[in-house]
């Protein structure tokens, strides 16, 4: 299993970024996928999940109305569109896969998002 995140960077508050996670080594269509972030000195925070082949999406309250999760089955890629970014969104963002929607998790290396005020 390989998960490769990209798209992070530094933006000013109010800006946008689109994170991507290219997946391989498992049945992408049959798997749940999530974005989880960790800010410096803080615990891991679940951000968003997409399940059932993309038919169900869930977002944390802190990002509702600003972030959108989606997936492209043709390229086995997970996305996180982040709009109206805030300094509190600054974190390392990780892509997590749950092959077969089971309990096993695979994590990517992460991509850094930094939002300045």
Secondary structure: elements and pairs:
Blueprint: E1 2-6, E2 9-12, E3 17-24, E4 32-38, E5 44-51, E6 56-59, E7 67-72, E8 77-82, E9 91-98, E10 106-107, E11 111-116
Parallel strand pairs: 2-11
Antiparallel strand pairs: 1-3, 3-8, 4-5, 4-9, 5-6, 7-8, 9-10, 9-11
Describe the protein in words.
With 117 residues, this protein is mainly beta. The chain is built from no helices and 11 strands. The strands form 2 sheets. Strands 2, 4, 5, 6, 9, 10 and 11 form a 7-stranded mixed beta sheet that branches. Strands 1-3-8-7 form a 4-stranded antiparallel beta sheet, with no helix packed on it. It is globular. The mean pLDDT is 95.
Fraction of residues in H or I helices: under 10%
Total number of strands: 11
Averaged pLDDT: 95
**Count of helical stretches:** 0
Q: What summary fits the major beta sheet?
A: 7 strands, mixed
**Structural class, judged by helices and strands?**
mainly beta
Hey, roughly how much beta strand do the residues contain?
A: over 45%
Give start-end ranges of low-pLDDT stretches.
none
Give the N-to-C terminal Cα separation: 37 Å
Rounded to the nearest angstrom, the radius of gyration is 13 Å
**What is the general shape?**
globular
Order of helices and strands: EEEEEEEEEEE
